[in-house]
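Case study.
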Amino acid sequence: MDYEAVIGLEVHVQLQTATKIFCPCPTTFGALANTHTCPVCIGMPGVLPVLNRKVVEFAIKMALAVNCDIAPFNVFARKHYFYPDLPKGYQISQYESPLAEHGWLDIEVDGRTRRIGITRIHMEEDAGKLMHDENRPVSYVDLNRTGVPLIEIVSEPDIRSPEEAVAYLKKLRQLVRYLGISDGNMEEGSMRCDANISLRPSGQKGYGTRSELKNINSFRHVQRALEYEIRRQTALLLDGQDVVQETRLWDAARGVTFPMRGKEEAHDYRYFPDPDLVPVEIDSAWLTRIREELPELPDAKRIRLKRQYGLSDYDLEILTASRSMADYFEGCVAQFPHPKTVSNWICVELVRLLRQGDQEIDTCPVSPAGLAGLLEMIDNGTISGKMAKDILQQMYHTKKSAREIVEEQGLAQMSDESQLRIVIERVMEGHPKEVERYRAGKTKVLGFLVGQVMRETRGQANPKKVNELLEKALNP
Amino acid sequence: MSSLTDLSVHELHELLIKREVSAVEVAKTYLKRIDEVDSKVRAYLTLTPDQALAQAEEADRCLSRDVEEATPLTGIPMGIKDVICTCGVRTTCGSRMLENFVPPYSATVIERLEAHGAVMLGKLNMDEFAMGSSTENSAFYPTHNPWDLERVPGGSSGGSAASVAARTCACSLGSDTGGSIRQPSSHCGVVGMKPTYGRVSRYGLVAFASSLDQIGPITRDVTDCALLLNVISGYDPRDSTSIPRDVPDYTLSLIPGLEGCTIGLPKEYFVSGLDPDVERAVKTAVSALEGQGARLVEVSLPHTEYAVATYYIIAPAEASSNLSRYDGVKYGLRAQGFKDLTDMYKKTRSQGFGPEVKRRIMIGTYSLSSGYYDAYYKKASQVRTLIVQDFRHAFKDCDVIAAPVAPTSAFRLGEKVDDPLQMYLSDIFTIPANLAGIPGISVPCGMDHNGLPIGLQLMATHFGEQSLLKAAYNLELAMGPWRNWPAV
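After joint prediction, the assembly is written out as follows.
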């Protein structure tokens, strides 16, 4: 029998507001343990949370970007469980009335566009981190992360394959980066994903029994964990067994999922509205202001760049991957108005250099103006395209401008006609037979003579000019 | 001249600004009296004599530099309920769990008092985490009623009320979640006010039930109450539930005459079970208010009978959540000899909390559990709304509601410890104001046949503290100055 996978994802995204969601501590990653803490985020007696409204703005931006309805009244709820990384014994989250509901997101897999529903987006605070001593049965608690704002984005069970799941996650990451609300880095945990997955006979409408996969911290692991789970559930079903509804952890080292112990799962979170916080009212003026602040999002940008510059889908994919990439492209085009040339150079040469240097476009040592300067020098014949590739590489590593490199190394093409004529004359004198043959109609010899001129000038002659002048000289 | 410790805050202030007495002298007199008397009353959990003298010296410097700089609280010795965080001074909440907890921050009210030059003598006893009506639930020792040392002072702010009555502080701060300021004030013959929810910042008040808790003053007379309220009230950006609303000068409400004021008597509060002495005293007080020009009307608060049940769902639910943080991980007690994490939690919480706190954590955990939430917590929240509406309706017909504070005067130590339900019912008249978020005050209005004080409770609509103070002040005028302190 043929089975179809039904997948829904719960994605947590850390918001990069300057301060935490309920206190003024910084959110930056990597500080010494427990230094980004205060009585509020470590849950001392008698202290109270005060909502950072920037968090609401960031969450609203995400909600608008995925076409959600936004709730006019937002209530925070307490979610209770005991764990040492949760200093209050409860997490402040949203329960009955999330910030946003009923959204969607379009993804593209194998050239086919699919619309994935977004069930809800809500705001909550992150927990701390435990560090376990490897030698002794002791754990340490770092509460720097406690109170860092999160949004949880819950999808509908609309995803049908591991590839779609990864495409959905990449799209979310692209969006949070476009919006500037998170770095969306899965490896560092600023984007985390739990996956619900079940199988059903192809064509069936109802859902099968699902398992929930946790502890997946990269796109590749999402793909592998889902593939494993599809194989596991398929084998069970083909064998006539039932899938058990349970939470399973992904073991990246062994490449398997395994069930979490039942006790850890059996939570009654005892949600109730947090009496320390007042409901947040989101009025239309606030919404309008945030909507106006939204940047051009990837899909819209793609359509516009295509229309405005007539670029290929392949180039657009690369140029709209991030806001900074598109900005780089447009910044360059603004100074060198040949979009296709600019696009080619970014998508081939620059991307290759970035990949080699493990750099993002944001940190690219060559500025858009710098690249425009280089392309300008090709266009006016100062250097050849071939030389330009070499110069770009040097620009990338030395941060010098194209002009500086060309001047320092005397790389400018010889375009001066009087100088070139002297060389041509010399070459013609040195190769009388070839000149003879050319004049006898064997025009193919021209290539050879051009080559000789280039050799004489150590490649600095402008080949176009050489052709032109040589032909004139051969046909007096 | 009566003893310094017999004086009210405003009387003491007069002496201080005339430089007839120094703040250090006052503080020393109080510390001496604590030394003499508190072994009998046991109102204090922690004394801070060094801090008190340092603050008194600072107050004296201020007073001698420029009297204009002095505030009505400059050099006034106060006691603070031990549920209010004081930076560098242990804050136990009357619990083993926090027996050695020293907060690195002060509550907003403490910062305000300090800024006004008040002097802190120490931290006052209370029922553990403010849960109780007799101060017998203190993990350390019960406080005794200065009027009869065999009796309870009421609770949970028993230490705060007893110390004011025993003149071991000039005034104090308490907190009121279901009557914890008003009931002990009534039992100890002092003035105690629970302000409107949101009037006083809760920042630094260790939470019992966040939607009900409110800090308030306990004083010798109504004028002192207004003076203290002036200082502790106001919006605090650190408390999202505090309300950005101007603070009037509450002493301007202390004017004779109640012409134009209508006082409502809720029929549901004058029912069987009310002690005849209490009923008589309350009715006498109401007549006195009428004598000051007030008009009396009967009003109805039909959902009163559900108030206690509603409260004992909502308050424990919030408490069970608020007290989750005491897990032995970060501060406070951590039990010894545990075998794993769960065992550490269990042993710590079993050893750190007393029976009443455990009872309420269990009630609250149960009522928030999935499958029970709708029947308990949600239903209770709906009934709470009906109680709010009762008051809204009643305040269309009157400006102030007059009622008893408690069904009886102070009971004997040990009398109700084994009967939690009887104990809970002693808050029957005070709980509704917390559920509705409205202000209430207890003012002494007479004595019972055992010579124990009885208080009159006055309630007003949200932010109606001025009406309360005016009516309370007129009661004080009509009944003659309250100078009958217990001879402890």
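Observations recorded in class. Chain B touches chain A at residues 83-85, 91, 93, 98, 101, 103-105, 107, 202-207, 209-211, 237-241, 317-318, 320-321, 323-325, 327, 329-331, 341, 345, 365, 368-370, 373, 377 (CB under 8 Å). The two ends of chain B are 19 Å apart (CA to CA). We will return to this complex in the next lecture.
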